[in-house]
Amino acid sequence: MKLLIIGSKGFIGSHLADFLLSKNYNVYECDVAVDYLKTNYITIDATNSDFHAIFSAVKPDVCINCSGAASVPDSLIHPLRDYILNTQNVFKMLDAIRIHQPACKFINLSSAAIYGNPAALPVKESFIPAPISPYGWHKMQAEMICKEFYDYYQISTCSLRIFSAYGAGLTKQLLWDLHKKFTTNAVVELFGTGNETRDFINIHDLVNAIDCCIHNARFEGEFINVGNGVEISIKQIADYFKTHYQLRKEVVFNGHTKPGDPLYWRADISLLTAMGYKYAIDIETGIKQYISWAKTV
């Protein structure tokens, strides 16, 4: 099986490439950075991506799109950039598949951000999307494009709605923010009340989930939640950091919610578990591993 990872230099893409190569897949990688050492690597123009050249040359059996912007705050400041990277490029990829390799299966990495603030938990794929950020809207539009290409051109697609992914290599978002503040600040100040919740999934579990989807998804334009189905509060996460750092630092919550941030998340992962997925790394173990890595950066 020949696999193409677009966005292979990013957080998820790089871990996925390493994982699939360890499984002896025939992996091709693609990103905007230049790499003179890797074989089966394609550099793409960040400003005017030509996916036709890639798909006509590689002709993959499966393409996993790990590319795009991944920042809610940045999407509020630069919505056009976010739209181009998360929505327009997905259309360009699928159009290139339609023309050059219509048998290719396409997995698009979407986001739980499409749900916004769900009315109930756990969040099911059948819930009506209600994004609260440009990032969420653009990810939702990319899902619709995947469904469009399945419905009208019989291109095999699915979209993975990833919840809060974390792990070694991630130098942004909550865990990185906590690491930096625990190592530099006298008082650790965080947004919100601390009662907000997330459904965290370690990167090692995430790449296994993607592998499950490669082999077992229907590829009928469907949406699949990717999380662990475990709800944990931001305060609990901060407490884990306090325990592992063994520092008597005060953690305070300022009561302000950042624009685009949801309040509570927990995924219904029935579809994913039916494909054979089981998580291996619980959140406390994962945070301990993350802190060990972060201290080396």
Q: Can you list the strand order of the major beta sheet? A: 3-2-1-4-5-6-11
Overall average pLDDT: 96
Report the order of strands and helices: EHEEHEHHEHEEHEEEHEEHEHH
Rg estimate, integer Å? 19 Å
Determine and state the CATH class. Alpha Beta
Principal-axis shape equals: globular
Number of helical elements: 10
**What's the CATH architecture name?**
3-Layer(aba) Sandwich
The tally of beta strands, per DSSP, is 13
CATH homology group = NAD(P)-binding Rossmann-like Domain
In percent, how helical is the residue content?
40-55%
Q: What count of domains describes the coordinates?
A: 1
Description of the structure:
The protein has helices at residues 11-22, 51-58, 72-77, 79-100, 134-153, 173-184, 203-216, 234-245, 270-274, 283-294, and strands at 2-6, 26-31, 41-43, 62-65, 105-111, 157-162, 164-166, 187-190, 197-198, 200-202, 222-226, 232-233, 250-253. By secondary structure, the protein is an alpha/beta fold. The chain has a single domain, classed as 3-Layer(aba) Sandwich (Rossmann fold). Strand 5, helix 5 (134-153) and strand 6 form a beta-alpha-beta unit. Helix 2 packs parallel to helix 4 (79-100), helix 4 (79-100) runs parallel beside helix 5 and helix 6 (173-184) crosses helix 8. The protein is globular and about 60 Å long.
